[in-house]
């Protein structure tokens, strides 16, 4: 086969080719889950394609069967400060396919080879793969099966692919295309390396796929790693990982590791990275997804992307952040100073800040957001449907931040009024400007230079890192596999959430659909659209109706059915565009009667949901609303506890 450089696929075509390819292999294609996980207090965002799939990888039956594929939108807040180089983005799409106890390595590896070399037309001479080197002390063998299967694919087109050992030390030998790495690189479990896994935990080796942009570019020689051997996992920029095949085949026991009875496959491949490989351009921001945004920024600024390093950095931050903000607001997360909303606010404010590097000082964010919506209108029609609210949420935050900038300048002058040229701005003052007033540290640095003052950036960064670690430890809990908290108290809160949802729709009207929820061991939180503050009478009525439903002790049951059947039965459904053909529906009351949020009726609530719930509502406990407040314009929040 000839691998032509003239075939240029759009990112939209790559996404569709992937889904069509795996559908032809018997996979059910499901829609992307939301960026906000359903009833999962362990994480703020959906950060990987497999995150919504963990319950099924652990044995729960998937309503669509044993072969699943999708393109999952993802957001990783921890990468915000990394954006600006040619490959980091906080928002991305992850192409995924799963085997839930169905096929395994013998099918997955040839399929991936077929997809990337025939569907995407990637040149095999520029492809490299890694496999698990094994751990003799734990009794886990080297994954020679995967390495052998990759060799077989190369051999099918006449390439003798050699296998390399210890590439971090030995580099890449002539003819080597497959490399063994240890568990830090090529092992997956929710707990990390095998030694950290608790008894009963599943895990397994993975095999990663890399694209080579070419040694002739000299990336390694001009990188800080030039004194070390270059290999596919080197960070010099020559190679880019485009996908990872996880083979979940082991379970840890008291005696060591044993084979799982149900072996699973979990593949994840970055859509944007695959597009960069198709382009053979290591700059992700040059793929077609960013064309409209990039052109609009060039028009607004009069600058050219790629002309100067600092300006190119700013282009990337603005494009990435406003794309992410568009999708987050589209999923119901509006700018605020708490939880997910804090990150939306930060994305928009950083965009405004970096746009100033391009000379853009007037309101501009909605113009970029419109480009994002236009680019994704076919794949994500919900962005078009919610365009007005997205534009409104983003523009209001931009206007608010521009006022903050003005205030920050005033505070800066006050804090530095007594300083003379050559003196140092205190780290505490710089951090106070940053944390309390949202004043960018880069702007503080610029002002310091203009006034002949010194700012200790290292001290500031150390203080910011200390603050981030404290915030992360106390607030944003690290993702440990995506499993929602299924403890007794969380299950009771989850059931109370359904009761409250039904009650709010009854009291306030059909617009009051859930737009976000969060459950901890101490309380529940429920977000919903409503134009004004609830009255004390409405709050009391909501609380009384929920408690009446609890007191009636309705039975709670579930059934799988088509989404259309669920709608016909009057089930409450959130974000209809993301549901699968077969859904799980929970009913609180008689399954044969219409759900009416009235304790005198035989059925109180019916809602599409993955669970879990208590077996009957009497187990919930006494429900009490402790606060009703505004989250953003037109969005309210109820906080409640169970006593």
TrEMBL record:
Name under which the protein is recorded: alanine--tRNA ligase
One Gene Ontology CC term in the entry: cytosol
Native organism: Candidatus Magasanikbacteria bacterium RIFOXYD1_FULL_40_23
Annotated keywords: Aminoacyl-tRNA synthetase, ATP-binding, Ligase, Nucleotide-binding, Protein biosynthesis, RNA-binding, tRNA-binding
Enzyme Commission code: 6.1.1.7
Segments forming domain Alanyl-transfer RNA synthetases family profile: 9-643
Record PANTHER family: ALANINE--TRNA LIGASE, CYTOPLASMIC (PTHR11777:SF9), ALANYL-TRNA SYNTHETASE (PTHR11777)
SMART domains: tRNA_SAD (SM00863)
Record flagged with keyword Protein biosynthesis: yes
Family, as annotated: Belongs to the class-II aminoacyl-tRNA synthetase family.
GO terms under biological process: alanyl-tRNA aminoacylation
MF GO annotations: alanine-tRNA ligase activity; aminoacyl-tRNA deacylase activity; ATP binding; tRNA binding
InterPro entries with a match to the protein in the record: aa-tRNA-synth_II/BPL/LPL, Ala-tRNA-lgiase_IIc, Ala-tRNA-ligase_IIc_anticod-bd, Ala-tRNA-synth_IIc_core, Ala-tRNA-synth_IIc_N, Ala-tRNA_ligase, Thr/Ala-tRNA-synth_IIc_edit, tRNA_SAD
PROSITE patterns: AA_TRNA_LIGASE_II_ALA
